[in-house]
Every structure is written in structure tokens, then in C-alpha cells.
Amino acid sequence: MIVICPCSLVLATPTAIVAAIGNAAKHGVLVKHGPAMEQIGKIDVVAFDKTGTLTLGEPRIKEIVSLNRMKPHDILALAASAERSSEHPLGRAIVAAAHDAGLETVPPQDFEALPGHGIRAAVQGRAVAIGERLLEQERVAMLESARRRMADLEAEGNTVVPIAIDRQVAGLLVISDTVRPESRQAVDDLNRSGIQETVLISGDNRAIAEAIGRELGVGRVHAETLPEQKLDLIRELQAKGLKVAYVGDGVNDAPALAAADVGIAMGNIGTNVAMETADIVLLTDGIECLPYLVELSRTALGVIRSNVIFAMGVNVLSVALGILGIIGPVLGAVMHEASALPVVANSARLIRRARPLEIPR
Length: 361
Hints:
There is one protein chain. By secondary structure, this protein is of the alpha/beta class. Among the domains are: 43-56 and 179-289, Rossmann fold; 60-176, Calcium-transporting ATPase, cytoplasmic domain N (3-Layer(aba) Sandwich). Helix content is 48%, strand content 19%. It has 15 helices and 13 strands. It has helices spanning 7-26, 34-39, 50-54, 72-82, 89-100, 132-137, 144-155, 183-192, 206-216, 227-239, 254-259, 272-277, 289-323, 329-338, 340-348; strands at residues 29-31, 45-48, 60-66, 109-114, 118-123, 126-130, 159-165, 168-176, 197-201, 220-222, 244-248, 262-266, 280-282. The strands form two sheets. A seven-stranded mixed β-sheet has the order 1-13-12-11-2-9-10, with helices on both faces. The protein has a six-stranded antiparallel β-sheet with strand order 3-8-7-6-5-4. Helix 4 (72-82) crosses helix 5 (89-100). Residues 357-361 have low confidence and may be disordered.
């Protein structure tokens, strides 16, 4: 009765998981609960959002192309006024550009953000709609010459956002973003660590998404996806029996973050909705921590297995010795308590584990 269930067996899993979570916190990663720490080591596929995740999420207005007689700074002022309430990185870039240019903006009326499509609002009595999908949805006609200009700009790796004023396409907002310097190494390390596949899921057009995918060595690219389509792609992968981690930062990513086996949000640039929904938060947007997090989880699972084997071994040995009369209640109690020390010590090694420069194959 004294030795039948040693403390070491009870402590085998929680001590290792807590130690691993503590180690992750030292490297700027908040793991919200134990199951997430366990699951990240069993992941088969890592899917990424693009803007703010694989890129810096600091887009800048590169050019404003006027398609009518409006001046570029007038187009920018109306666009920035409409985007004042937007949380999207592109919306913030438009507002920042207007501020840098010294343009005055006014609060919009009837503001409405349509995830994956764009925004619409009334600015000083003028109807403003921003976003290619939104313009198509509202059947705002775009000249073929404007479409060709969009295609040329996108082929250069830019994000091009059309803006309509009073149901007429007024201009193109040409926006550029920068790939995170650490993204390529993070993707390479994930591939070397045994992850079956890395996937880029982006709402951007195919030319931009595929260019980023090739630059970073991502295995598969899904472009022009709406938030609900991101969710469908995650579920499609899971239906194949794959465990999926999704990394994102925006409101649009929340459904995919919730559906994934492990949702991972960027903590610095990420929205509150994304961080609340995710299981893991990269507090400093350190995407380079992902491969180490996978490796740390796998190490923790190995520590759990060794702890359980040791605890069960002590359990079986103690019961056998008790049945044979070799040990009595006092020695049995000593063995019961003492067996917990090696388990705790084995788990504690995870706290001081250093992050390697490269993740081994």
C-alpha cells in the first residue's frame, strides 16, 4: 500500500512540461498551457500567414497611382481617413503615410471592415471603398489599362490596393513590405527538424505569395485566400490525419489559429484577438524560436517517457521487494519519497537547456 503509487509517477509529466514552459519563456515564448507544449513537438505541418509573420509587417506606401484627375495626395488623404479605424497592417501603413506627408485626416462615417475583402466608409460625404475583392463585390468597373498596371506592379513584388471614390476607381496604392531576415533560416530549420511540410497561406495575389514562398523555401503556397478559406485549408490538412500548427498575427487569422492543433501568434505586431485565440505567443515576434520550440517539446516528451519508465521501474521493484518481505513499511516509505528526486532533477535539466545555433536533423 505504501509503495504502490510513487510520487515519481505523478510528477513525471507535469515537472517536465512546467520546466519546458519555463525554458520557452526565457526565450521570449509564452506557452499558455501544458497540452500546447506537448502538441508542438508532434506537429506534421507548419502553416504561415505572410504579412506580419514571415514579413516584418511594416508595409510602406511606395507609390500612389492616380487613375483619374485626382491628385495622389488627395487620394491618400481620403484613403487614410477611411482607414483610421482599421487594425490591418496595410491600413496602418496608409494612415502612417498620410501622417508623414502632413495630410489632415478626419474620422470616417459608417466605417465597415470586411475581413479578406477590404474596408468601406464615408469620408466628408464621399463613399470610399478600398480593396480589390470589395470593388469586385460591389461591381465597381475597372479599366483594362488599370488592371494591366496592377499586374505590372504586382509582378515587381508589390502589394497593390485599388481605391474607389464614389463608385469610381480613383487610384492604386502601391505598398511594399520586407521579409524578416530570420524567416528563411526558421523555415530551413523546421524542414531539417523533420516537419513534413511548410505552407504559406496568404490573402495576397498569387504572384506576390509565390515570390515570397520561393524566397523562403516554403513547400507549398496558397494565395488569394479569404479567412474562411484559411480555416478550410487547416481542416483539410487535419482531415488527412496531419497535426497542424498555424502562425499568424491578424484578426483574419483568428479562425485558423483556433482550428489548428497549435495556434501561434506574433506578440509584438499581433492583434489582441490573435493573441487571445492562440495557444502560444511569440512575445518578441521571434519566429526563429519556432524550430527550437519544436525541438524543446520533443525533448520534453523524451524526458516524460524516461521519467515514467523510471517511476514504473521503482514501483515494480518496490512492490516485488515488499511482497518478498525484503523491505518493510519504513524503507518502503523512504523509497516512495526518494524516487521523486531523480524525476524532478531529470525534468529540471530542461529549464537550463540552451537554444542551439542550428536545429539538428
